[in-house]
Specification:
By secondary structure, the protein is mostly loops. It has a domain of about 45 residues. It contains one helix and two strands; from the N terminus they run αββ. A two-stranded antiparallel ribbon has the order 1-2. The radius of gyration is 13 Å and the shape is globular. The relative contact order is 0.18.
Length: about 80
């Protein structure tokens, strides 16, 4: 049995700051891991189905990479 995602569909979709054909920007809640680690704690990967916005699944559960280079504290300016 799998556990439910840590955020509802409405909660995670309300945190989408920008989306287009190339990028999805999310205001990730503090304390929520980006991906599953050894602890198997709740994480953002568990919300992926709610972020497909009706698109078919395009990956087969293989390796998913996250670019965390632009993660900043809320309100911090992005690098130029």
């Amino acid at each position: 049995m799998t556990r439910p995602p840590p955020l509802t569909v409405e909660q995670i979709q309300a945190r989408v700051l920008h989306r287009d054909g190339l990028i999805l920007v999310i205001d990730k809640p503090a304390g929520l891991a980006v991906h599953a680690g050894p602890s198997k704690a709740p994480n953002l990967e568990e919300c992926f189905d709610a972020l497909r916005f009706g698109l078919e699944r395009w990956f087969d559960g293989g390796d998913v990479r996250f670019d965390t280079s632009l993660i900043r504290a809320s309100g911090a300016p992005l690098p130029q």
